[in-house]
Amino acid sequence: MSGGNNRRKIDTVVFDFDGTLVDTNDAVLESWQYAAREILGCEFPYDKLKATLGEPIMRTVAALFPGQDAGAVVEAYRAFHHEHFEDMIKIFDGVHDMLEALRSDGYKLGVVTNRLRYTTEIGLDQFGLAKYFGAVVTVGEAPKDKPEPEHIWFTLDKLGSSPDRAVLVGDSQNDIIGGHRAGLVSVRVNWAVATDEGFGDKAAEPDFSIDTPAGLLAVIAELNGRA
Predict the structure, then answer these.
(1) pTM (predicted TM-score)
(2) How far apart are CA 138 and CA 121, in angstroms?
(3) Which of 13-27, 91-105, 189-203 has the lowest mean pLDDT?
(4) Where are the domains of the chain?
(5) Which of 103, 115, 118, 220 has the fewest CB atoms nearer than 10 Å to its CB?
(6) What is the CATH number of domain 25-88?
(7) pLDDT, mean over the chain
(8) Run of H or E residues at 78
């Protein structure tokens, strides 16, 4: 440790939810397809939908349904989503072990997501994840949502932490851009299906990429070895 400081440099980890902790991709994509059938009478190509993963819902509505009644689109999306969500999601392998290790080592853990609280809590409770997190901040609960930094800062405030002591873990470019804007170390997970489009941009380039949840433990150990 530098300067005789025995404290760890990193003591907080903030996670995205969708595509990072829980695989919600089928639920999200099929909900958009249902909305497309109801509103447009067609379905979208998979790659077009995949490119929207991790976006705030209204941005996706604007991109996929230009000129349509946004309220009607959201209503159709959520009707399918809420009915099928529990049956279509699954936890990624290794997430429980990773969270248990982090909690056992005394790290502060939080979730920051552009998902509604209702379904976020369903997913956390379904897989026994809620116990790990000292703060869960969902869409609309901060002054601005990801990728704006206020969403992440709001979560850190609830955890009693600061950007210089925290890592942001996510799968989408919105997560990585948000992490950079908020001043956190950013870690991209490679086990989800969020599009690679945009990751060539410097603003969306993560500080680290990991292939398994266990890889996060190695990243944090490396960061704290530098402290």
Answers:
(1) 0.88
(2) 10
(3) 189-203
(4) 2-23+90-226, 25-88
(5) 118
(6) 1.10.150
(7) 91
(8) helix 70-88
